[in-house]
Design goal:
This protein is mostly beta strands. Helices cover 5% and strands 52% of the residues. It is built from two helices and 76 strands. The strands form 19 sheets. Strands 25-26-27-28-29-30-31 form a seven-stranded antiparallel sheet, with no helix packed on it. Strands 1-2-3-4 form a four-stranded antiparallel sheet, with no helix packed on it. A four-stranded antiparallel sheet has the order 5-6-7-8, with no helix packed on it. A hairpin with a 5-residue loop joins strand 3 (65-69) and strand 4 (75-81). Helix 1 packs antiparallel against helix 2. The chain is extended, with a radius of gyration of 35 Å.
Length: 764
C-alpha cells in the first residue's frame, strides 16, 4: 500500500509538469527541451556562478570539484577539476591534484592533466595551431593544440621570443632554436635576446660580458662590453659600455662612431639620436657625435625627429634640432602629430601649435582632443592615430567647427518611442531622433539626448544642455551646465547662479537662485536654500519653509523628512502626520499605502497612520506594488553571500519562499520578472509560475503592453501574459514595447515591429 502511494505521488507530479509544459512544446520545442534538462539538474550543484564568460559558459561546483555548463545549461565539463575554469582562445587550463591539462569549449580533453605548467604561445596568430609551452615537472617543450609534441621536452627552460625564434636553456646556458627545432644559436650564453627583426642577437656570457652575434652565430661585435642598450627602433648604431664610459658602435662593421667618453648613452625612441649624460645633465648627439642639444637639460623627450621636450628646472620647453625654442611654457603633457604640436598647460587647458611656433587655435580648449588630418576631434579619445573619428571637429586651418554626418539610416542602436519619437545612435556614438515613419527629425550631432516630454527633449552639444522641439529645431539654446526633462510643464536647469526652472519656450519661470532642487511633481518641487530644503509651487512661491535637512519628496501625499534631528512624515501643507521613534533608523517613501522602514538592520513597513503594519524582520525589502513586495534572505556560502528573494503581502505573510536571485516589479503589469538559479522567468502576484526560469534574460513590461522581451538560446522574442511565445525568438536583440512598437535587431539591421511581430520600420 505504501509503495502504491509513492508511485501515485510520482505519477501525479510528472503529470502536472507535463501539463504545464505542453503549451510550450506547441510554440517552441527548444523551450521544452531546455526546461526538462534544467529540471533534471535541480539540486545537483553546490555552487553555480552568477557570471557567464564571453561564450556564455557557467562555472559550477560539486563539493570542491569544478566543472562547467554551456549557455544552454548543458554540462560540457564534469565536476572533476580542482581549479576554476576560464577559457581563453578556445582553451581552458584544468587541474587535477598538482597536474595541469587543457580542455576545449566542448569539454574535450586536449592535453591530459600530466604537466606542471602550461602556457599558450601569444606570438602565433589565432587562426594557426598556436604552440603550447608545457613543463612536465622536469623538462620543458612545446605541443600543438592536438597534444602532439612539436618541440621535445628536453629543456630546463623555454621562452617563445617571436614567431621565428625560441630561446631554450639547459644547465644555465641559453641558445636559440627555430619553429622547426633547428639550432640557430648553440647553448653557449647565460642570456640572449633578438633585435633588428631577429637578424642580430644581444648575448651575455658567464663572465658577465656582452656582445652581438648574427643569425648565423657569427660574432659581429666582440664579447667584451659591460653593457649594451639595445634600442627599440631599427638602427645599427648601438650604445655600449666599456669600463665606466659609454660610446656608440656601428654593428655592421664594428666601428666606433661615438667615442667612449659619456657617463651614459641611450637610444630608446630617439630615431638615430642619442641622449647623452654627463655631469648630471642631459644633451642630444647624433650618430656622428655631432651636438644637437647642449648638455644642460633634464628629462629630454623626443616628440618627433628634430623636436624635443626638455626640462630646464623651471618648466617644460620645446626645442627644435637647432636648439631654437619654439614653445616656452610650463607644460604637463604634450604630443606631436605631423605638422602640429598638441600641448596641455597646467593639466586642464589644451592648445594646438604649428611646429614652426605659430599658434593656430584662437582659443584654449577645456578638454582633451585628438588631431586627425588637421582637424581637432573633441571626443576624449586616447592619443593614437588609429582610433575611429567621432565626426565632430574643429578645423584648425579655417578656424571653424565642422561636422561629418554619417549616412542617414545607418544606426548602431535605436531606442523606444516616447511621444512618437525615438532616440537613435550613429556608428560614432552621437545621438539623434527619428519619428515613427523612420524620418530623421534631428541628425546625430548630440553628445546626449533625452526622451520627449511636454513636446521638448533635452540635448547636449559641447557639454552644454538645451532643448529641441519635435521638428528637431533647437528652441532653447545649449546654454546650461545641466538640464532635466520637462515635468509638469517646467524643466529644472543649472546655471552659474544656481538651480531654476524654465517653460517650454525657454522663459525662466523661476529664477536660478537655489542651491539644489528636484523636478516638479503634482505642482510642487523641493529646492534647497542656505543648506536647508523646502517646497515651492509652480510660480516659485514657498509653500513649505526651508527648515528640513533632506529633500522633501512627496509620494501619496506624504514625505519623509528630518528636522533638527527628528524624523517624521509631513503632508503637503507641511503638517506633521507621522512621528518616527528613534528606534527607526531609516524610512522610505510611501507606495501602495505602505512605507519601508528599518530598525536594527531589519526591514519592515508602516501604514499611512504610522502603525507598524509589518514588524522589521527582513534583511531587505522592495517597495509595495499592487499589494505585494519583495523580501530578501541571505546565506553565506564558501565563496560568497547568496541572496534570494521571495514575495510578501501587506500582512507580512510570505507568499513564496526566497527562491529568486533578482525580482523586478512594474506598476503597469500584474506580472513580475524574476531571476532563478538557471535563468529568468515570470511569476504572478500570487507567486505562481507563468514562465519558468529558463530564459537568458527577460525585460519587465514597464509600459503595460502585455508582452515581455525574452532571450532564449541566444535569440530574442516575446512571450505574453500566459507565458506562451507570442513572437518567435528570431532576433539578435530586442527592447520592450512602447507606444505599440518594439525595437529589434536582426542580421545587423535595426528596425521596429508591432505587437503581432510584423516589421513596420527597418533601417539599412
Amino acid at each position: 500500500m505504501c509503495y502504491f502511494r509513492i508511485v501515485k505521488k510520482c505519477l501525479t507530479f510528472f503529470l502536472i509538469q507535463f501539463l504545464a509544459l505542453s503549451s510550450y512544446a506547441q510554440s517552441d520545442d527548444s523551450l521544452l527541451k531546455i526546461l526538462v534538462r534544467n529540471l533534471s539538474k535541480e539540486g545537483k550543484y553546490d555552487f553555480i556562478d552568477d557570471e557567464r564568460d564571453e561564450g556564455g559558459r557557467i562555472v559550477v561546483r560539486i563539493g570542491r570539484k569544478y566543472g562547467m555548463l554551456d549557455r544552454y545549461y548543458r554540462e560540457i565539463a564534469p565536476c572533476i577539476y580542482d581549479g576554476w575554469l576560464q577559457f581563453s582562445d578556445g582553451l581552458a587550463k584544468v587541474k587535477v591534484s598538482d597536474s595541469v591539462g587543457l580542455i576545449d569549449t566542448n569539454g574535450n580533453i586536449v592535453l591530459q592533466c600530466r604537466y606542471k605548467s602550461i602556457g599558450v604561445d601569444p606570438h602565433l596568430p589565432i587562426n594557426r595551431d598556436s604552440s603550447i609551452v608545457v613543463n612536465d615537472f622536469n623538462k620543458c617543450g612545446r605541443v600543438d593544440r592536438r597534444g602532439n609534441i612539436i618541440t621535445p621536452l628536453i629543456y630546463d627552460g623555454l621562452n617563445v621570443l617571436t614567431d621565428k625564434y625560441i630561446e631554450v636553456s639547459i644547465n644555465g646556458l641559453s641558445g636559440i632554436i627555430n619553429d622547426s627545432n633547428d639550432v640557430i644559436v648553440p647553448l653557449s650564453y647565460i642570456s640572449i635576446r633578438p633585435f633588428l627583426g631577429g637578424n642580430y642577437f644581444f648575448v651575455r656570457t658567464g663572465e658577465n660580458l656582452c656582445g652581438i652575434i648574427d643569425e648565423r652565430n657569427k660574432v659581429v661585435v666582440p664579447i667584451e662590453y659591460e653593457d649594451i642598450d639595445v634600442p627599440q627602433t631599427n638602427t645599427y648604431f648601438i650604445p655600449m659600455q666599456k669600463g665606466f664610459a659609454w660610446g656608440v658602435v656601428d654593428i655592421r662593421n664594428n666601428k666606433t662612431v661615438v667615442p667612449f667618453v659619456y657617463e651614459r648613452l641611450d637610444a630608446t625612441d630617439f630615431h638615430g639620436f642619442f641622449r647623452a649624460h654627463a655631469a648630471g645633465k642631459e644633451g642630444i648627439i647624433d650618430s656622428a657625435n655631432r651636438k644637437v642639444l647642449s648638455n644642460k637639460y633634464h628629462n629630454i623627450k623626443m616628440l618627433m625627429p628634430g623636436f624635443f621636450a626638455v626640462g630646464d628646472g623651471l618648466g617644460r620647453n620645446v626645442l627644435n634640432s637647432r636648439e631654437e625654442k619654439i614653445l616656452d611654457n610650463r607644460l604637463l603633457s604634450l604630443t606631436m602629430n605631423d605638422e602640429y604640436l598638441i600641448i596641455s598647460e597646467l593639466g586642464d587647458r589644451y592648445q594646438v601649435i604649428e611646429i614652426n611656433g605659430n599658434q593656430i587655435t584662437p582659443l584654449e580648449l577645456d578638454r582633451p582632443f585628438k588631431l586627425v588630418d588637421g582637424r581637432i576631434n573633441f571626443e576624449p579619445l586616447p592619443w593614437d592615430t588609429t582610433t575611429k573619428s567621432t565626426g565632430r571637429f574643429y578645423d584648425i586651418k579655417h578656424n571653424k567647427f565642422i561636422r561629418v554626418f554619417p549616412e542617414k539610416g545607418k544606426y548602431k542602436e535605436v531606442a523606444s518611442f516616447h511621444e512618437g519619437i525615438a532616440v537613435v545612435i550613429d556608428a560614432d556614438g552621437y545621438l539623434g531622433y527619428i519619428n515613427k515613419e523612420g524620418k530623421e527629425i534631428a541628425p546625430c550631432i548630440f553628445q546626449e539626448a533625452g526622451i520627449f516630454s511636454d513636446g521638448r527633449a533635452l540635448v547636449s552639444i559641447d557639454n552644454r544642455d538645451g532643448y529641441i522641439d519635435k521638428t528637431g529645431r533647437l528652441v532653447i539654446d545649449t546654454a546650461y551646465f545641466d538640464g532635466e526633462t520637462f515635468s509638469n510643464g517646467l524643466a529644472r536647469i543649472h546655471t552659474q547662479s544656481g538651480v531654476g526652472y524654465i517653460l517650454p519656450d525657454g522663459t525662466k519661470k523661476i529664477l536660478p537662485v537655489f542651491e539644489g532642487g528636484r523636478d516638479f511633481r503634482d505642482g510642487r518641487a523641493t529646492v534647497m536654500k542656505a543648506g536647508k530644503w523646502g517646497v515651492i509651487n509652480k510660480v516659485g512661491k514657498t509653500i513649505i519653509p526651508f527648515i528640513y535637512n533632506d529633500q522633501v519628496v512627496f509620494t501619496e501625499g506624504l514625505a519623509p523628512v528630518i528636522r533638527d534631528g527628528q524624523a517624521m512624515y509631513i503632508d503637503t501643507l507641511g503638517k506633521t502626520r507621522i512621528s518616527i521613534p528613534d528606534s527607526i533608523t531609516d524610512r522610505g517613501w510611501f507606495s501602495d499605502g505602505m512605507a519601508r522602514v528599518a530598525s536594527t538592520e531589519k526591514c519592515g513597513f508602516i501604514d499611512k497612520k504610522g502603525r507598524m503594519a509589518i514588524k522589521p524582520q527582513f534583511e531587505y525589502c522592495t517597495y509595495f506594488t499592487k499589494g505585494v513586495a519583495g523580501y530578501m534572505v541571505s546565506k553565506e556560502t564558501e565563496y560568497k553571500t547568496d541572496e534570494r528573494y521571495g514575495l510578501i503581502d501587506k500582512t507580512g505573510k510570505r507568499i513564496t519562499p526566497p527562491l529568486y536571485r533578482e525580482i523586478f516589479f512594474s506598476p503597469k503589469s500584474d506580472l513580475i520578472v524574476v531571476s532563478g538559479t538557471y535563468g529568468y522567468g515570470i511569476i504572478n502576484r500570487q507567486g505562481k509560475i507563468v514562465a519558468p526560469c529558463v530564459y537568458e534574460k527577460i525585460l519587465p513590461d514597464h509600459t503595460g503592453s502585455g508582452l515581455f522581451a525574452a532571450n532564449l538560446a541566444g535569440k530574442w522574442g516575446f512571450i505574453n501574459k500566459l507565458g506562451k511565445v507570442a513572437i518567435p525568438h528570431r532576433f539578435d536583440k530586442a527592447l520592450s514595447f512602447s507606444e505599440g512598437l518594439a525595437a529589434v535587431l536582426k542580421d545587423g539591421r535595426w528596425g521596429y515591429i508591432d505587437v503581432k511581430g510584423k516589421s513596420v520600420l527597418q533601417f539599412k
